[in-house]
Design goal:
Elements: E1 11-15, E2 18-21, E3 55-60, E4 66-69, H1 70-74, E5 79-86, E6 109-118, H2 119-126, E7 134-144, E8 151-159, H3 160-163, E9 169-174, E10 177-178, E11 188-190, E12 203-209, H4 216-219, E13 223-224, E14 235-236, E15 243-248, E16 254-255, E17 258-267, E18 273-279, E19 287-288, E20 290-291, E21 301-309, E22 313-323, E23 346-352
Parallel strand pairs: 3-12, 16-23
Antiparallel strand pairs: 1-2, 3-4, 5-6, 6-9, 7-8, 7-12, 9-10, 9-11, 13-14, 15-17, 17-21, 18-19, 18-22, 20-21, 22-23
Length: 353
């Protein structure tokens, strides 16, 4: 009998607003199809006008404020950035003690090719003053935040240096097609090294400012709070932590004795992945894995290890990655009150029978 054509689906965490995980164990490519790209929303999806009316405003501390249309932007020199986008709350559900917030597993992460225009190029049309400090990006989505009854648009800022980075782009395509509406069409900011909260969707306005931006998604959320009872020692979430995920075998699999391939992905925010190791004895010793894909800036690497499982029993398999800056996954993640940046060594349990 012919087997049915079974395809993986997104894993729903909440419906209003819509938050869904990529089924990361079943991703085999360096480009996640738009159908399986994770969805992270704070509010309901925005209402947008017809595509012929889409435009982007740039104002604030600039010499020449502009309003530029999608049609005009499409005619300008384009740039492509192949990058991981990872929600800052990815793997939040694994923190101990547990923290409040969306209980993400391992799938609030995806990767693909974004095409757009360099933000630096766009800002050159306006001319910058000498007093600018940050660049604010305001999306079309809005709603009430946890700590306020007022309506807020989702808005975040970047330091001027990061805004002018050559690979910070205003994207309008994903994997060769227009960005899907639910992922930010018509304009999405892409900040490759940072967690995905920085990659603001449905961008409608860009404002250059002379001070630090104090919006709720800048100064209340996306902050590491190391203490449960107070805000002492807090600092902002920015670049991604070095991390890895085991894709195969699946957690709680039952396997026969013999050879098995342990495989997964690893990524980091700064530099390149240089090494991935796995432990088959709960961290007592480590074995270096083979990097199947060439480490490249912003992208995950695929890795694998051939394991000859000769003895029956229950096993805990751990994976840890190291990057070119010397960062290595810790055994225990750095606990913080809002549950950001989880990057403890990944682990699964299996049974050899």
């Amino acid at each position: 009998m012919q087997q049915p054509n079974v395809r993986p689906y997104l894993i729903t965490k909440s419906l209003s607003p819509e938050n869904q995980e990529t089924p990361i164990p079943f991703v085999q490519s360096d480009r996640v199809d738009k159908r399986l790209f994770f969805k992270r929303n704070h509010f309901s999806y925005p209402h947008l006008l017809s595509s012929s009316l889409y435009s982007l405003e740039i104002d604030g501390s600039v010499i020449n404020p502009i309003k530029i249309s999608l049609q005009h932007i499409l005619k300008l020199p384009a740039k492509e950035v192949h990058t991981v986008l990872e929600c800052a709350g990815n793997k939040r559900g694994f923190f101990r003690p547990k923290v409040f917030g969306e209980q993400w597993g391992k799938g609030a992460i995806s990767q693909g090719v974004w095409r757009g225009i360099s933000l630096k190029t766009l800002l050159q049309f306006t001319g910058l003053l000498d007093i600018e400090k940050e660049v604010v990006f305001i999306g079309n989505d809005y709603g009430k935040t946890t700590n306020s009854k007022q309506l807020h648009y989702f808005a975040r800022s970047l330091p001027i240096e990061q805004a002018l980075h050559e690979d910070t782009i205003i994207a309008y395509q994903y994997n060769g097609n227009p960005i899907p509406f639910k992922h930010g069409f018509p304009f999405r900011l892409i900040v490759p090294n940072w967690y995905a909260m920085a990659s603001v969707k449905w961008v409608k306005r860009i404002e250059v400012i002379e001070k630090s931006f104090d919006g709720p998604f800048q100064c209340e959320d996306y902050i590491y709070y190391p203490n449960k009872e107070n805000d002492a020692g807090a600092w902002p979430v920015t670049t991604k932590n070095v991390n890895s995920t085991i894709q195969k075998p699946l957690h709680m699999d039952e396997l026969d004795t013999g050879k098995h391939i342990v495989k997964g992905i690893a990524w980091t925010g700064i530099g390149l992945i240089t090494k991935v190791e796995i432990s088959l004895n709960n961290g007592k010793s480590w074995n270096e894995c083979e990097l199947i894909t060439t480490p490249k800036p912003y992208q995950w690497v695929q890795w694998e290890y051939e394991w000859n499982a000769a003895e029956k029993g229950e096993y805990t398999i751990l994976s840890r990655a190291t990057d070119s800056e010397g960062n290595k996954q810790p055994l225990i993640a750095y606990w913080n009150r809002k549950g950001y940046g989880y990057n403890a060594v990944d682990q699964i349990k299996i049974k050899i029978d």
